[in-house]
Design brief:
about 200 residues; mainly alpha; 7 helices
């Protein structure tokens, strides 16, 4: 039994050495306290030094993917709002969005209002809709988007494929390199089309 504990201790030490080396190679100082904000963090920054090197390395690896996806997802929402507001008017939400999506948004806003201790996620309705709903909104209002995209299938495929990676990322998982590459490629495709 004691040999098993010793082997486990040695193995965990080897993993830690490997993780620390990976952090060094990523340019992360392991002698100073890394923070979420920056190297010269403000007093209010959240320290991650108490987490394992493996968790910190995963967070650092996914931070740029998360930022890119944050920008992408919000730009899709912004595109929808701007297009439909410009072409349909201020009442675009009720005219262009399905009852199913609107009902879900009403429920989520109601839940937010009951939890007054936490700030609401957003002021606008579209921020309460699921990422997967974005392709439904675009394709059901195709006349307002067809000048931007080659086909409805193109939109459905890109956003559908990205949704799986987005959900894994949103639940704090480390994505495989091939999934990160797919995100990179699809985001570039989208930006070239929607520009």
């Amino acid at each position: 039994m004691m040999i098993g504990k010793i082997q486990n201790f040695v193995f965990r030490g080897m993993l830690l050495d490997s993780d620390l080396e990976a952090l060094k190679e990523a340019g992360i100082s392991i002698t100073e306290s890394p923070t979420i904000a920056s190297e010269k963090a403000d007093e209010g920054a959240i320290s991650i030094e108490d987490f394992s090197a493996r968790i910190r390395l995963g967070a650092i690896k996914m931070s740029s993917v998360y930022m890119a996806f944050f920008c992408f997802e919000n730009s899709v929402r912004e595109l929808i709002v701007e297009r439909l507001k410009e072409r349909v008017g201020a009442t675009w939400w009720n005219k262009c969005v399905s009852k199913r999506i609107r009902d879900t948004v009403v429920k989520r806003k109601s839940t937010d209002s009951k939890n007054r201790w936490h700030a609401p996620r957003a002021a606008d309705n579209i921020s309460y809709a699921d990422f997967g709903d974005m392709s439904d909104i675009i394709t059901s209002n195709w006349a307002h988007f067809e000048d931007l995209f080659p086909s409805q299938d193109w939109v459905k495929t890109r956003l559908g494929d990205l949704e799986q990676s987005r959900n894994a990322l949103a639940h704090n998982n480390v994505l495989a390199e091939r999934d990160i590459e797919r995100i990179r490629m699809y985001l570039q495709d989208w930006l070239m089309q929607a520009a």
